[in-house]
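Re-run requested by the PI after the first attempt was lost when the workstation crashed. Everything re-entered from the original request form. Ligand of interest: S-adenosylmethionine.
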Amino acid sequence: MDNSRFADQLRRGCEALGVGVGEDVPERLYRLMGELLKWNAKVNLTAITAPEEVLEKHFLDSLAVLPEVEGATSVLDVGAGAGFPGLPLKMARSGLAVTMVDAVGKKVGYLKAVVTVPGLGLGGTKAVHTRAEGRPEAEGLPRADRVLARAFMDLPDWLDLAPAYLVPGGHVVAMLGKAMGEEALREEAGKRGLELVSARAYRLPFSQAERQVAAFKKQAE
Ligand code: SAM
């Protein structure tokens, strides 16, 4: 896929998802895809390698959570793997302080390298090699006002772990493959002293794959 077809598809996908990105973001994502596929030939980072799929399943799927991140100043992406959703979010919202954490050294090696590539607009993004176990200070991880993860843990385990990384007033964001009813989300939240802030079901624009994103905050905040 050439750069202009990629940019066109990306813009159409963002429009369908209702998220806005700057003019230069498609071009920078195209270059990020080049870095990802180049590294992936040496280091196993992702099984998704067809450009159409990288565009939708990695990039658009990451950008789809922009509404849950608007207004935030800091994001912690736990189990970021090859940088999803953290890298596309940083590209789309340059003012966000993004920290990505992963337990696998070679993935973090890629992340540390890619954030320094000139022109990608990823400067200042941090990548930390550690196991996230809910002890931010001991793990060298910052607290953030949006703590999110994709394809990392099932919802109950995620809601047990993630609140430890919140600053007061922050939100835990859960990206779910299959939509859950709001009552079930509220119940899982309530068991852990959390409150459901929002829940939104949608489909990815080209494959129509089902997705849901839910945000939670600590009760009495
Ligand atoms: N979020 C990325 C995505 O959606 O493409 C990667 C998802 S991958 C299925 C899960 C990632 O979580 C892996 O890269 C794995 O190394 C990492 N991981 C698993 N347990 C972890 C932990 N306790 N702390 C940090 N990373 C962890």
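Saved to the shared folder this time. The beta strands are 74-78, 97-102, 126-129, 144-149, 166-176, 194-203, 210-218.
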